[in-house]
Amino acid sequence: MKSRLKTGQKVQGAEIVCESLLRHGVSVIFGYPGGANIPIYDALYKYPELKHVLVRHEQGAAHAAEGYAWATGRPGVCFTTSGPGATNLVTGLADAMLDSIPMVCLTGQVPSKMLGTDAFQEADVLGVTLPVTKHNYLVTGAGDIAPSIYEAFHLATAGRPGPVVVDITKDAQANYAEFAEPEIMPEFNKKIKTDATADELDSLALLLNNAEKPLIIAGHGVLLSGDGKSLLKVAESQDIPVTLTQLGLSAIPHDHPLFMGMPGMHGAVSANRAPLEADVILALGMRFHDRVTGKVSAYAPQAKIIHIDIDPSELGKNVVPEIAIVGDVKTILNRLLPKLKKRKNPLWLDRFKLWKKEEEEKVINPELNADILKSAAVINLLSKETRGLATIVADVGQNQMYAAKYYCYRKYNSHFTSGGLGTMGFALPAGMGAKMADPDREVWIVIGDGGIQMTLSELATIAQEKLDIKIALLNNNYLGMVRQWQELFYKGNYSQVRLKNPDFQKLSEGFGIKSEKADNLNSAGQAIKNARDFKGPYLIEFVVAADENVFPMLPAGAGIDEMIISKADMK
Amino acid sequence: MHKNLQNFIIWAQNKPGVLFRILWLFRRKQLNIESVTAGHSEIPDITRITITVSNNGNKVKNMVHQLNKLVNVVKVEHLDTAMLVYREMALIKIALSEKEEKSQVLRIIEHFRGRVINMTNSVMVIEATGDENKIDAFYENIKNFNIVEFVRTGRAALLK
Ligand SMILES: Cc1ncc(C[n+]2csc(CCOP(=O)(O)OP(=O)(O)O)c2C)c(N)n1
Ligand SMILES: [Mg+2]
Q: What φ, ψ does residue B109 adopt, rounded to 5°?
């Protein structure tokens, strides 16, 4: 552990902030200075070990911190000033809250004497961020800074991860206190159950050992629990097909024969048909989100559901499980493994071959062999060129679905996206954070022409930091996903979805970022090669079909039995 | 009326904002609060909060887990009314115009085992305790008099 201060040394609160971060192994901070956190920036000057990235908007800082957390499993850290600085974080906090991403955000606040007076740049940060954080603190004394930051780091990763805000008044930053490493108070170590009891394991094994058509649905919890190997071993021991939710993608290699795709609204045919026939569903670190289940009453009619999650409030919330176990997925699977009978299940797996073939014929092949450039083909090319080993940071919209479905993830934990909140503009700063956290990753940001303009200013940060990031901009000149809905469900009334876009080449060059444009498969392949050969940021604008639709799809409110596989299926 | 009230007894740290976090969560999860009682418990620095809601089913069950996730909450119990002994208290201020009225009111008070806790020539303040039904019945009996103010607490509840 790095440290600069000695226990008992009297320093300003701002220095205690920096020391506390240093002692938590923080390597990068994403932030923006202002009047109410200027003392922290002054202290930062003395802490060159703490690399600070000057983003261009605090929302960018929040998403960058999320990207950092995705890549490392450690809390991403943000600094902002009071008022507008802090409120600009809110979207990122809400995003992290829904997707269980650990984050510690330190916001400056007006001096404690002025709290509640509507002072300059005062916002009720505790009130504003309460609904979008695991917990938040208002710190008004220098001596309370270290305990709050230590608790914040503990809470951000304890059990189900999430964001924590520590709002520090300017006088607390400026006043002096003795630095001491606080002990985490016992109430914060509230018992988090991480393991299954022997009885729970036995009933779990009994159900699986007797299942004829078992199915695994694994989510973000698998990645958060730290490895996909135990999942793979359990699946392989009984030939259990594995589907991965959007946030669980890359938990196992996607070219594995037991991988059956992503379930849900734009999920794979196999992943949506299987719950209709399965007799046992093993749900791991996922939450039966409405985007996954469709109409709950039509979901998994015959299946006995085993639900394992570290958060007790998720069990029984959306579906009623036969067996519900609170605990850490990896720990439980490793203990379950010896209790499972080894067996093959060729009949059940044959069903999946059929479903996969259906999707290939009706959806995938036409997408990949179209005359004009299609997003699916671009992602497929990218997948081949990078051999499935890059980290894909996907934005929101059609581009996100193509990134989820057409990239063959072969590197563990290599797909980052905004799932729960669906925040357009997430990918650009999140990709930046992921690259800063782990420079050895090959990071590709996949983003639409709409989304890139939400947090576009972070191109300047990427350029300033000379990050070796590649940006695959899928330009369909539309808010494509909304356009798709309008085409399919609103009689083709295209209301406010057409974008007259800037010249992305010029824009990119303006930021000092190399770029090129590709509008056919050949030039697309060459552009990807060029980007990979270039050391530094590189933006490729892929001009893709304006009218593409992502299939299969479930209409809003429909059950998974009503999946539409192609436009021809629609009456 | 008050038949299916569900009770949450919550032990939480006595710190600024804690009650707000708890009440906010009920709103967030779309549960309507019927009553709240909060105050010190027998444990130093721990507040005991009793909240009743009339909803039932999955949402209420899930609420225990949601409440448990609040950092400042130390312990939560979700209990059926049958498992509790509890009281509400009501204070009623009545303006009196005639002598007869006074004796009528006193008779009602006696019937409900209430107490007069303040009296002037023209105004009487009455205290009544009991479960919600008793307080309701008391109110029904007295509502035709000239009620100036009426206030009632939520449940103060203990496990049987
Ligand atoms: C911040 C935000 N605003 C609005 C939406 C609603 N929305 C979802 S997808 C989408 C279209 C995205 O367009 P684009 O970024 O071009 O991606 P495409 O779907 O065309 O690939 C919109 C507007 C959202 N998800 N996030
Ligand atoms: Mg678009």
A: -60, -45
Cis peptide before A131 (omega within 30 of 0): no
- The CATH number covering residue B73 comes to 3.30.70.260
Q: Is B76 in the same domain as B140?
A: no
Residue A324's Cβ-count burial label (10 Å; 0-12, 13-18, 19+) is middle
Q: Which of B13, B22, B31, B71 to mutate to test the interface with A (most CBs of A within 10 A)?
A: B71
For residues A273 and B160, what is the distance between their CA atoms, to the nearest angstrom?
A: 51
Angstroms from B155 CA to nearest CA on chain A: 26
Domains of chain A plus CATH, in order, are: 10-189 (3.40.50.970), 198-351 (3.40.50.1220), 371-544 (3.40.50.970)
Question: Nearest-CA residue of chain A relative to B27?
Answer: A131
On whether both B140 and B155 belong to a single domain, the answer is yes
A59 within ligand 1 shell (Cβ under 6 A): no
Number of domains in chain B: 2
- Burial class for A78, CB neighbours closer than 10 Å (0-12, 13-18, 19+): buried
Q: Which two tokens stand for residue A349?
A: 């797996």
Digit-by-digit pLDDT tens for chain A (571 residues) are: 889 999 999 999 999 999 999 999 999 999 999 999 999 999 999 999 999 999 999 999 999 999 999 999 999 999 999 999 999 999 999 999 999 999 999 999 999 999 999 999 999 999 999 999 999 999 999 999 999 999 999 999 999 999 999 999 999 999 999 999 998 765 555 677 889 999 999 999 999 999 999 999 999 999 999 989 999 999 999 999 999 999 999 999 999 999 999 999 999 999 999 999 999 999 999 999 999 999 999 999 999 999 999 999 999 999 999 999 999 999 999 999 999 999 999 999 999 999 999 999 999 999 999 999 999 999 999 999 999 999 999 999 999 999 999 999 999 999 999 999 999 999 999 999 999 999 999 999 999 999 999 999 999 999 999 999 999 999 999 999 999 999 999 999 999 999 999 999 999 999 999 999 999 999 999 999 999 999 999 999 999 999 999 999 999 899 999 999 988 888 6
Structural domain boundaries, residue B111: 85-159
- Do B142 and B112 share a structural domain? yes
B73 and B96 share a domain? no
Q: Are residues B39 and B106 in the same domain?
A: no
Beta-carbon separation of B65 and A313 below 8 A: yes
Which protein residues have a CB closer than 5 Å to ligand 2 (ion)?
A: A 448-450, 476, 478, 480
Residues B108 and B128 in one domain: yes
Both B20 and B30 in one domain: the answer is yes
User: Which of B37, B64, B84 is a domain's end point?
Assistant: B84
Please provide residue A65's backbone torsions phi and psi, each rounded to the nearest 5 degrees.
-65, -35
CB-closest option in B21, B69, B72 to A313 = B69
Residues of A in contact with B24 (CB under 8 A): 130-131
Query: Exposure of A351 by Cβ count < 10 A (0-12 exposed, 13-18 middle, 19+ buried)?
Result: middle
Q: What is the pTM of this model?
A: 0.96
